[in-house]
Design brief:
- This protein is of the alpha+beta class and 393 residues long.
- The protein has three domains: 120 residues, Acyl-CoA dehydrogenase/oxidase, N-terminal domain (Butyryl-Coa Dehydrogenase, subunit A, domain 1, Orthogonal Bundle); 98 residues, Butyryl-CoA Dehydrogenase, subunit A, domain 2 (Beta Barrel); 146 residues, Butyryl-CoA Dehydrogenase, subunit A, domain 3 (Up-down Bundle), CATH 1.20.140.
- Helices cover 49% and strands 13% of the residues.
- The protein has eleven helices and nine strands.
- Strand 4 and strand 5 form a beta hairpin.
- Helix 4 packs antiparallel against helix 5, helix 7 runs parallel beside helix 9 and helix 8 packs antiparallel against helix 9.
- The N and C termini lie far apart (52 Å).
- 50% of the residues are buried.
- The mean pLDDT is 98.
- It binds flavin-adenine dinucleotide.
- Flavin-adenine dinucleotide (FAD) binds next to strand 1, strand 3 and helix 11.
């Protein structure tokens, strides 16, 4: 039977006081909708390893697709903190649901909005904003993960069209995407953004199976065998590796908020459980060792909230750097992973069951710490930023 979602968000430093009424409204509406529509079904879909497609329309309605894309293109026209809060709420329920929205917003709508032609924006953005179209982002290849610049997927100019060949792997939303933003090299070795549409001859997107993590998000390959790409499907506004990396900056920023959501969910569950669970004639919350765990969790959540809020303010001013985003993504996922593990311990044996969310969050976070730049790569980005010496190769 579906459980009632009892989540209460911790706000130890009154961070709500820093938020505008609009930001709070966006967050609270998303939270209420997620509690009603997604919390009751998420465990079932996680176990089935299936994305609950019936929530797509609702995700569009709460503004989860393209929150900061201007309203003229169907987006919600919100600021960056509202975007972050939406990602926090989505990941509080499940990282897979947040991933679907992150990809749609920052990896599909963002490049079309920033680098697309007016025709491309009008054709794709309004439908992506409602969820009528779903999109995916193809950068990673079987032999090029942390080093996407080495990609071999390529386009060749054939006069009135391009021919696309190659393969992408680990692509979120790929099997059901209507449009794929694919990064491929041209004859001059420049990386270009290519809009590949479902149904194009020679294009397939088989689902990948066997994931123990992010099971409620669909992952697939993108295979291109002489796919004829009309010239109007190339993103004209920017080329080079900086183009996909700028999309990742936006998505990683969302992840830095999302990870707080997963951490808050685990903390909230552990706090409630520890007050109810009796051992040695006392609630386990009465033991100092339990209090140490809970006190450290809320301290780390509070620090992560402040980091994300400040980063959001910098983004609103157009001042956030890639390295600042890396620091927040890395830190907030790390604390979320630690909190999930500690919260699981507080629940004892019950903590390993699907009655509680920790194991699901814990497994999900293994993907989140790896995708959009691994934990170590983000450390190297901070290292490069403070020393001016790249240590990648
Ligand atoms: C569930 C899921 C969904 C994903 N969705 C997408 C998507 O939608 N689109 C997309 O394009 N990609 C996606 N990815 C791919 C993801 O971005 C890559 O997995 C990630 O970039 C890491 O690449 P890799 O797995 O090939 O690991 P590798 O690059 O092979 O790294 C393996 C290990 O080596 C380390 N390493 C690599 N280089 C260095 C170095 N220079 N110095 C020190 N250590 C190094 C890494 O930190 C890591 O620990 C997804 C991945 C997952 C798991």
């Amino acid at each position: 039977m579906a459980k009632t979602d009892l989540f209460e968000a911790p706000d130890y430093y009154n961070i709500d006081d820093l938020l505008t009424d609009e930001q709070k409204l966006v967050r609270d509406s998303a939270r209420a909708w997620l509690k009603k529509e997604v919390s009751p079904i998420i465990e079932e879909y996680y176990e089935k390893a299936e994305f609950p497609k019936q929530i797509i329309k609702g995700l569009g309605e709460i503004g989860a697709f393209g929150p900061y894309i201007p309203e003229e293109y169907g987006g919600a026209g919100l600021d960056q903190i509202s975007y972050g809060l939406l990602m926090q709420e989505l990941e509080r329920v499940d990282s897979g649901v947040r991933s679907t929205a992150s990809v749609q917003s920052s990896l599909v709508m963002f490049p079309i909005w920033k680098y697309g032609s007016e025709e491309q924006k009008k054709k794709f953005l309004p439908k992506l904003a409602t969820g009528e179209f779903m999109g995916c982002f193809g950068l990673t290849e079987p032999d090029h993960g942390s080093n996407p610049g080495g990609m071999t997927t390529n386009i060749k100019d054939k006069g009135d069209h391009y021919l696309l060949n190659g393969a992408k792997m680990w692509i979120s939303n790929a099997p059901f995407a209507d449009v794929a933003v694919v990064w491929a090299k041209n004859e001059e070795d420049r990386i270009k953004g290519v809009l590949v549409e479902k149904g194009m001859k020679g294009f397939t997107a088989p689902e990948m199976h066997g994931k123990w993590s992010l099971r409620a998000s669909t992952t697939g390959e993108l295979l291109f065998d002489n796919v004829k790409i009309p010239k109007e499907n190339i993103l004209p506004g920017r080329d080079g590796l900086g183009a996909p990396l700028s999309c990742l900056d936006s998505a990683r920023y969302g992840i830095s908020w999302g990870a707080i959501g997963a951490a808050m969910d685990c903390y909230d569950s552990a706090l409630r459980y520890s007050k109810q669970r009796m051992q040695f004639d006392k609630p386990i919350a009465a033991f100092q060792l339990t209090q140490k765990k809970l006190a450290e969790m809320i301290t780390e959540i509070t620090k992560a909230q402040l980091l994300a809020w400040r980063l959001g303010s910098l983004k609103n001013e157009g001042r956030a750097t890639t390295a600042q985003v890396s620091m927040a993504k890395r830190n907030n996922i790390e604390i979320a992973m630690n909190i999930a593990r500690e919260a699981r311990q507080i629940h004892g044996a019950m903590g390993i069951t699907n009655e509680y969310p920790m194991m699901r969050h814990m497994m999900n976070l293994e993907s989140v710490v790896t995708y959009e730049g691994t934990h170590d790569i983000h450390l190297l980005i901070t290292g490069m930023d403070i020393t001016d010496i790249p240590a990648f190769s």
